[in-house]
Amino acid sequence: MKKTRAETDFSHRRISRRAALLGGAQLLFIGGLAARMRFLQVDQADQFRLLAEENRINVRLIPPSRGEVFDRNGTRLAQNAPSYRIVIVREDAGDTDEVLHRLSQIIPLAPEDIERTKDELKRSPSFLPVTIAEDVRWEDISRVSVNAPALPGVTPEVGLSRVYPQGSDFAHVLGYVGPVSDYDLEKIADPEPVLRIPRFQIGKVGVETKLEPVLRGKAGAKRVEVNAAGRVMRELDRREGTPGSDIQLTIDAKLQGYVQARLDQESASAVVIDCEHGDVLACASAPTFDPNLFVRGISVKDYSSLTGNKYRPLASKTVQGLYPPGSTFKMVTAMAALEAGLIGPDETVYCPGHLTVSGRRFHCWKRAGHGWVDLQTSLKRSCDVYYYDLAIKVGIEKISDMARRFGLGIKHDVPMSAVAQGLAPNMEWKQQTYGQSWRVGDTVNVSIGQGFMLASPMQLAVMSARIATGRAVEPRLIKSVDGVEQPSRGGESLGMNENNLRKMRRAMNAVVNDRRGTAYGSRIIEDAMRMAGKTGTSQVRNITAAERRAGVIRNEDLPWERRDHALFVNFAPIEAPKYAVAVVVEHGGGGSKAAAPIARDITLQALYGGQPPLEAYPAKDRERIEEQQEKLRGMEPQASFVGRDQA
Amino acid sequence: MSYLEYAVKSAPVGFRKIFYLNWPVALLLASVSGAGFLMLYSVAGGSFSPWAEPQMKRFAMGFALMIGVAMVPIWFWRSLAGVGYLLTVALLVAVELFGTVGMGAQRWIDLGFMRLQPSELMKITLVMFLAAYYDWLPAKRTSHPFWVLIPVIAIIIPTLLVLRQPDLGTSILLLAAGGGLMFLAGVHWAYFAAVLASVIGLVTTVFQSRGTEWQLIKDYQFRRIDTFLDPSTDPLGAGYHITQSKIALGSGGWTGRGFMQGTQSRLNFLPEKHTDFIFTTLAEEFGFLGGISLLGLYALIIVFCIWSALTNKDRFSSLLILGIALNFFLFFAVNMSMVMGLAPVVGVPLPMVSYGGSAMLVLMLAFGLMQSAHVHRLR
Fold this sequence. Notes:
The structure holds two protein chains of two kinds.
Chain A: H1 5-43, H2 45-56, E1 57-62, E2 69-70, E3 76-89, H3 90-93, H4 96-106, H5 111-123, E4 129-136, H6 138-146, E5 154-163, H7 171-174, E6 177-179, H8 182-187, E7 201-203, H9 206-210, H10 212-216, E8 217-218, E9 220-226, E10 232-239, E11 242-243, E12 247-249, H11 253-263, E13 268-274, E14 280-286, H12 291-296, H13 300-307, H14 317-320, H15 330-339, E15 349-351, E16 354-357, E17 360-363, E18 371-373, H16 375-380, H17 384-394, H18 396-405, H19 427-434, H20 440-447, H21 457-469, E19 471-473, E20 478-481, E21 484-485, E22 490-493, H22 498-513, E23 532-538, H23 545-550, E24 565-572, E25 579-585, H24 591-608, H25 622-633
Parallel strand pairs in A: 2-12
Antiparallel strand pairs in A: 1-9, 2-3, 3-4, 3-5, 6-7, 8-11, 9-10, 12-20, 13-14, 13-25, 15-18, 16-17, 19-22, 20-21, 23-24, 24-25
Helix pairs in contact in A: 11-24, 15-17, 15-18, 17-20
Chain B: H1 3-9, H2 23-43, H3 52-71, H4 74-79, H5 81-98, E1 100-102, E2 105-110, E3 115-116, H6 118-136, H7 145-163, H8 168-185, H9 189-208, H10 219-229, H11 238-252, H12 263-266, H13 278-310, H14 315-339, H15 357-375
Antiparallel strand pairs in B: 1-2, 2-3
Helix pairs in contact in B: 2-3, 2-13, 3-15, 5-6, 5-7, 6-7, 6-8, 6-14, 7-8, 8-14, 11-13, 13-14, 14-15
């Protein structure tokens, strides 16, 4: 189409107009973009700068190192040892299957570990290390290091893990640590962020958990720059945390080791208390277990063998175990009567072998009876009828009060797990618990530490210490925290008549050192070390009248769990008491046979601060004792090992 | 003697034409590309590979192409307008049938030596075709309904083909550039007003129908539209890119964090940092001053193009130059609106700066045509 000049001019003008219009609109839009840029980059810069920092900076916690635990002489009981693990980084490894295969030929690896590693490798980002094996032995670590060129992406890492060098000796007192579980987190209202660090260990049982806040310390933090995928590019700065406080127990590791070895595989427990300060010098429960197993994560097999054992190795019997104190309670009944002024000088009671109270017959352990007995004779020969008679005169309220004054039926503040309160029953208690009124027969049972009466070995040791000193000795387990001596509580006078206490001590002396005493066989010959004590044999079953007529079955003929508990409490030396001891052998039979020899050996060990000379023992026992000492020396606490033996 | 005074004196021939190029535009293009090389070097962590070096080679090729195209008289190119348009549409159909699927969309044909992206080429041939059409059409018929329908169809066909790939960004650019050219050619106001009114009406009706019995589209489609329009409702999904992009821009401040110091791009928080979101890296590292400078360079290119068009008495030439300028404007305006959170993320790169060969070569071809029109203008 041919166009005229006018047409061209006309269209050109129109194009110019519209081009100017459109061009203007474009410039306007560019102006708008500039304004928006100004708004974002100048007006809101601070806010976005902050967001950018939040993007790139991550705060990572540095776990604090846990406080260590020492015994009273500075022996290390719990420490943090390096624990080695092997990790693999996918992006460095390349063919992970091949690398894992090679690794499994160099060091022993469980097939489950390999499977789990492969699984985790698939799920996690390629730059994150995945743990192949934990607690690897040092030899295996060196083998991995030597073969490093053949194992791309595989590196050994070192972390700190709890180790208990004394092994099983302190399993019940110290307890153990373990990785934080979901269950642990649920129990804590406001968990510290440090608890969420993988593999972070917290106390699970015993002192480890009771003193957790002291031992844990404060976490440090480091700021790292990360990229969008979360990979750490560099560390910006760090603030070190505060390590946990070291603590010192009142326990003497050497004595504890001896006591544990002496109890051996019996289902038994023993407590040694320093009479002056209440320091717990030994607190052993047998059988025991290796707490190191729990730190590493105990195998199902090991765990079920511990829970399936009828001797209950996991139970801390010294504070958790409650037993009828049996005849060891007779001092309480006697003191209640003495303090009430109900025992005149030279007052005697006739024991025909039984006592009939409101139509029910209560037997003395000796069917033939003891004849005429006074306070000292009754305790020495452990006559039951004497105490039945006393208890009926004194009444349960006074006995119950006296029990509490001696530290029974009250919960002592010891930082161990599951500390039991025990029971010193009175009328009100029975009414509240059973809705029944107290009967005089109940009093008769309590008078010889049977019936409702329950006490733990720790409480019995406290009772013994209180009789020995006349002061309200309180057990103390923590000697110092971070070098700061912890005060010992209690120690004030019990406010009892010193003459009465002296009578008790004399009677207890007779129990051990009088030819006719029940514990005469376990006496100490060395004059300066002689001890006073009391045997106890507490029934765990009722002996029926029919059974009694047919003749009581001997303990040895009963199944283990129905045999009597054997108990013994003592203190030594008599003139200036230093140590109070309580020993309970579950279902051990008679206190004089099963418990007293153990208590004597422990007492001597404590008094001599090591193996006592044979001269301290009665001459006819020395040969046997020597054999026993020989055997115990071979039972030194097993050396703890670092790293799991996976071979 | 100023450049413009010199230009009107005589019509150049032969290689002397090279002195008559619109050098300001050529130099501005080189500066913008230079900024691009710098940013590609930076996002690669201070390395010429993998992006800066190929980009520089392509720019060199593109620059040579531009000059080559500029040497050929504009009337030759005009004679190719119709054939070029048809050929490109045919290529779009070919992509539809045999194209390679890349990034979830069919976009290119592998020619062996290079990957041809016909949708990029379409932007140029469409503008050429419309410019030639209106050059041919007598001015008084411009607003006749029949003569309006022909260019509308010529725009709609490639737009729909590109939309099918699917490449929403490019099809919007095609539609806007085609419509813009019709506007420049002098099509009556009423047509644009009618189209605008009916689009507004349709959108309003669809949104009005939401939640009523006669709802026109499905619920999930509405939700998709919601996220598309306001990515902040989905901060970790669709909104992640735009949030991170705004953070990068904003943290730049007045003067930026310094060359290669941008944490957002260096630590990979920015998506597509070497292509669609490259402007954010520039704004983060050089701040408001850097960003506004680049925007200024773009504005100058537009201004020089419009000036060249207004001083050109040939109808085809001035429409072509304006169309190319409009295309170029739409290109960077959409990209910048996108990274500043003003527009949905539609996947439009920043012209001459983003990494990408096809787009750069096509742009340089377009500016070659613009230079040819400039050199061979009626004086």
